[in-house]
Write a structure and sequence with these properties.
With about 450 residues, the chain is α/β, with parallel strands linked by helices. It has three domains: about 5-125, Methylthiotransferase, N-terminal domain (Rossmann fold, 3-Layer(aba) Sandwich), CATH 3.40.50.12160; about 150-380, tm_1862 like domain (pyruvate-formate lyase- activating enzyme, Alpha-Beta Horseshoe), CATH 3.80.30.20; about 385-440, OB fold (Dihydrolipoamide Acetyltransferase, E2P) (Beta Barrel). It contains twelve helices and 19 strands. The protein has helices at about 10-25, 50-70, 90-95, 110-120, 165-170, 180-190, 215-225, 245-255, 270-275, 280-295, 315-325, 355-380; strands spanning about 5-10, 30, 40-45, 75-80, 100-105, 125, 150-155, 155, 175, 195-200, 230-235, 260, 300-305, 330-335, 385-390, 400-405, 410, 420-430, 435-440. The strands form five sheets. A six-stranded parallel β-sheet has the order 2-1-3-4-5-6, with helices on both faces. Strands 15-16-17-19-18 form a five-stranded mixed barrel. Helix 7 (about 215-225) runs parallel beside helix 8. The model has no long low-confidence stretch (mean pLDDT about 95). The chain binds iron/sulfur cluster (SF4). Iron/sulfur cluster (SF4) binds near residues 168 and 203. The site of iron/sulfur cluster (SF4) has 10 residues, from helix 5.
């Protein structure tokens, strides 16, 4: 029984893929270890969304050189988005010839056979497929992290081709899972005791477009409402362009779908949005937010914002700041544009110098922090349903959970509340969390 160690880079899709990799390894008899030095098999699940993520993979692989030399039986595997890039498998093999196994995002299910080949034939194995198989492979074993919140893939790939994004090239075109397979997995998650599921996809609200109209994302949420055991349903990531009125209505009427809307805006200038090929204007985005807030006043609104896209002028950036002031996002993932080779934006004129990007991101973070703090301070006195996730690291006796808006809430309480849904009255708001006291009057 060899110990296995998985290092995951990147987003929740990758985190979940690693849970599937772990499930397959355990079904082969491998056991988990937290120590890379003890591992008999090491899998790196990679990300290529930014250059920094790739550099981290290269340096991790470099550090494994000595370990492999000392233990030739060690199996080193690399999978994930990075391996799907053109010529990357050959480049990885050239730079790190001691890597035994390279496979892609479209053939995770083949891992057991690929490992067998490495073990029996003692050769380097590379298998990267250009697309998912015609029939999606279902029923793979999953070793989920945690006991309360579970991820559930509802679709793969993306058809949007935003000009800065490499995802459609490495994750392929949109493919929706069949509703019955999703429901079956959700029911299993519920039976296993998880209280919350997060539906995953690059663009979840375009779910079903490839299913001949049998179901859309709103319909899928309605079906999931009836799954036993699950108290909360979240989803990520949704695209503002595909956020329909029907979807807002379904969410507003649901008892389980959380009132958290993560809607990546990316920029506040129509010129930049057009160059990004985002498929909506600033005005359309603001209208969508207005619709959401008017039908769900308690909604938490969060976003992704990029600064320094090619050609972004000061006036465009000012429009982004203005949009942030107007919407008053509860929080934002802010990041600096980073050219990815092979994407149209990488070849666009007007690449922004790094010092300018740095100045803009700092201004944006300052503004967002100020708004996040103000909004959290305004929460004092609110009563929220909180799903208790565990103990806070900051102080003993302090518990931590999330409200339906996905805000972290801390409060004093006994450990036997973990996994329970309780009511908490917010007493104070901070930059990144709320604190409160258990509300015993209700529930
Ligand atoms: S919607 Fe745009 S940013 Fe998101 S994964 Fe697809 S191409 Fe990338």
């Amino acid at each position: 029984m060899k110990p296995y160690f998985i290092k995951t880079f990147g987003c929740q899709m990758n985190e979940h893929d690693s849970e599937v990799v772990a499930g397959m390894l355990e079904s082969l008899g491998f056991i988990p270890t937290d120590r890379v030095a003890d591992a008999g098999i090491i899998i790196l699940n990679t990300c290529c969304i930014r250059g920094t993520a790739e550099n981290k993979v290269f340096s991790f692989l470099g550090r494994l050189r000595k370990q492999k030399k000392a233990n030739p039986d060690l199996i080193i595997g690399v999978c994930g988005c990075m391996t799907q890039q053109d010529h990357m498998a050959a480049r990885l093999h050239h730079l790190f010839p001691y890597v035994d196994l390279i496979f892609g995002t479209h053939n995770l299910h083949r891992l057991p056979e690929l490992i067998k080949r490495v073990e029996v034939e003692r050769v380097n194995v590379q298998e990267v497929l250009p697309a998912l198989p015609k029939e999606l492979v279902e029923g793979l074993p999953v070793k989920r992290k945690g006991k309360i919140r579970a991820w559930l893939n509802i679709m793969y790939g993306c058809d949007n081709f935003c000009t800065y994004c490499i995802v459609p090239y490495v994750r392929g075109r949109e493919r929706s899972r069949r509703p019955e397979d999703i429901i079956e997995e959700a029911a299993k998650i519920g039976r296993e005791g998880y209280k919350e599921i997060t539906l995953l996809g690059q663009n979840v609200n375009s779910y079903g477009k490839d299913l001949d109209g049998i179901l859309d994302f709103a319909g899928l949420l309605q079906m999931l409402e009836n799954v036993g055991g699950i108290d909360r349903i979240r989803y990520m990531t949704s695209h503002p362009r595909d956020f329909t009125d029907k979807l807002i209505e379904v969410i507003s009427q649901s008892g389980k779908v959380c009132e958290h809307f993560h809607l990546p805006v990316q920029a506040g200038s129509n010129r930049v949005l057009g160059n990004m090929k985002r498929g909506y204007t600033r005005e359309e985005y603001l209208k969508l937010i207005e619709k959401i807030v008017s039908s769900i006043p308690r909604a938490t609104i969060t976003t992704d914002i990029m600064v320094g896209f090619p050609g972004e002028e000061e006036v465009d950036f000012e429009e982004t700041l203005e949009l942030v002031r107007q919407v008053r996002f509860d929080s934002s993932y802010t990041f600096v544009y980073n050219a990815r080779s092979g994407t149209p934006a990488a070849a666009m004129p007007g690449q922004i110098p790094e010092p300018v990007k740095k100045e803009r991101i700092q201004a944006l973070i300052r503004l967002q922090n100020q708004i996040s703090l103000e909004k959290n301070v305004e929460e004092a006195g609110q009563i929220y349903e909180v799903l208790v996730e565990g103990e806070s690291n900051s102080r003993s006796g302090l518990l931590l959970g999330r409200n339906r808006g996905n805000k972290i809430v801390t409060f004093e309480g006994s450990k036997n509340l973990i996994t329970k849904n309780i009511l908490v009255t917010i007493t104070e708001g901070h930059l990144a969390h709320l604190s409160g006291i258990i509300n015993n009057n209700k529930r």
